Amino acid sequence: MKRSCVKGFISLVCNAAVVAFTAVCVAGFFTKGGDGNMEVAGSTAFKYFTVDSNVLAAVAALFMLPWSFKTMLGGHKAIRRSVLLLKFVATAAVTLTLFTVLFLLGPKYGYGLGLKYGYGVMFDGNNLFMHLITPLLMIISFGFTECRGEMRFRDTFLGLIPTVLYGAVYAAEVMLIKGWEDFYFFNDGGKWYFYMPAMIAGSYLICVLLWLLRRVGVVFSER
After folding, report:
1. Which H helix or E strand runs over 120?
2. Cβ contact 126:28 at 8 Å
3. CA of 174: how far to CAs of 138, 169, 171, 186, 211, in Å?
4. What single DSSP character describes residue 40?
5. Complete DSSP assignment for 73-97
6. Which residues contact 136 (CB under 8 A, 6 or more apart)?
7. Whose CA, among 37, 143, 146, 207, lies 20 to 30 Å from 88?
8. Is the CB of residue 56 less than 8 Å from the CB of residue 71?
9. Are 202 and 96 in contact (CB under 8 A)?
10. In whole angstroms, what is the distance from residue 187 CA to residue 183 CA?
11. Phi, psi of 146 (to 5 degrees)
12. Measured between alpha carbons, how far apart are the two ends of the chain, in Å?
């Protein structure tokens, strides 16, 4: 089997899994309620960036599936630019979710109780898919298998869109409307002026790293 066909197969499996896992996880909020740090029911779940980023990932993966299938069968067409950029933005969003869990929420939720408790909450039940498995599937498929189609460096700024939009809503709900509790600790100790810019900077760093990762994937795919 040709290398491109193998990559198409891996892309197909990853994208199909993302769509399936996200559908099951989101449905779970409406049937049995959330797990771990997201013990809410129904549409309230969409207040979490985790859920929103996973839904965006599923949409992007769904649009990528036709290309994955054709490539698996031996097609060699470039990915439509709009689909490629959507996949990039979604991958950046769920990667931010993963990194936030690993470096902020896991330690914060485990403070005084031990990291085992903190990460246990983060990866409990469906959270394992939304916080870890789906982000990894998106990173693998985008960075190593979906290497046909042009992506410019300036496109990295598009990856900030989910972070900036959600950040604005979160800030309004937590600090102005006071409709949400500060479940992401972005106003912990009143230090929103540190956490908010840090999240945007971290988000853009992720965008650049994903762009570099795909560049490496493109180089190897051309050999």
Report:
1. helix 115-122
2. yes
3. 30, 9, 5, 9, 32
4. -
5. TT--PPPPHHHHHHHHHHHHHHHHH
6. 98
7. 37
8. no
9. yes
10. 9
11. -105, 65
12. 16
- Which two tokens mark 102? 């690993």
Hey, what are 42's tokens?
A: 């129904």
**Type of residue at 75:** G
Q: What DSSP state is assigned to residue 153?
A: G
Question: What pLDDT is attached to residue 77?
Answer: 86
Tokens representing residue 46 in the block: 């969409």
CB 169 within 8 A of CB 49: no
Averaged over successive runs of 10 residues, the pLDDT of the chain (223 residues) comes to 85 98 98 92 97 98 97 90 98 98 85 64 93 98 92 97 97 95 90 92 98 86 60
Residue with tokens 């870890």: 132
CA 222 to chain CA centroid, nearest Å: 27
pTM over 0.90: yes
Amino acid occupying residue 99: F
Chain Cα centroid distance, residue 209 = 14
The CA distance from 19 to 218, in Å, is 25
Do residues 220 and 109 touch, judged by C-beta distance below 8 A? no
Whether residue 66 contacts residue 55, with contact meaning beta carbons closer than 8 Å, is answered with no
SS3 11: helix
Instruction: Please give the Cα distance from 22 to 24 (Å, whole number).
Output: 5
What SS3 state is found at 49?
Answer: helix
